[in-house]
Amino acid sequence: MFSTTKLEDYFDFFSDDEICLKGHRIGIDNVLDYYLEGYTSEEISANLPSLSLEKIHATITYYLHNRAQIDAYLRRLAQKREKHYQEWSANPSPLVQRLRAEKAKRFEIKLKEQ
């Protein structure tokens, strides 16, 4: 008897900007980043060992069947991450500020020693 599993059954669609593999906190973007960089399914599995090859193949197949929508999804995620990074970079935490100051201080000392 054949399974009636649909591709969508492999994923949790939490929002338009959050699609994860069912039973994982791993987003489809994590798998697709590797895939789009040229990794094989087996190499993706080595980097994301909690995912079965079946789930990796399902993610790639879902992408190939919905390329335009998923490319738009990946662009939105990249834009959100860049915006978040820019906000973080412009307003670093006190710890990051102290670390940067210490690094600059050590660099100045090293220059004076030369």
Overall domain count: 1
User: Biggest sheet: strands, sense, closure?
Assistant: 2 strands, antiparallel
Average pLDDT number:
92
Strands in their spatial order, largest beta sheet? 1-2
- Spans of at least 5 consecutive residues whose pLDDT stays below 50 are none
What is the highest CATH level, the class?
Mainly Alpha
Secondary structural class:
mainly alpha
Number of helices: 5
Oligomer: single chain
| Strand and helix order | EEHHHHH
Shape: elongated
Determine the CATH superfamily.
Winged helix-like DNA-binding domain superfamily/Winged helix DNA-binding domain
Q: Can you tell me the CATH architecture?
A: Orthogonal Bundle
Gyration radius (Cα, Å) is: 21 Å
Strand content: 5-15%
Helix content class = 55-70%
Q: Count all strands and give the number.
A: 2
Give a brief rundown of this model.
This protein has 114 residues and is mainly alpha-helical.
Write up what this structure looks like:
With 114 residues, this protein is mostly helical. The chain has a single domain, classed as Winged helix-like DNA-binding domain superfamily/Winged helix DNA-binding domain (Arc Repressor Mutant, subunit A, Orthogonal Bundle). Helices cover 64% and strands 8% of the residues. The chain contains five helices and two strands, in the order E-E-H-H-H-H-H. The chain has a two-stranded antiparallel sheet. A hairpin with a 2-residue loop joins strand 1 and strand 2. The longest helix is centred in the last third of the chain and has 24 residues. The radius of gyration is 21 Å and the shape is elongated.
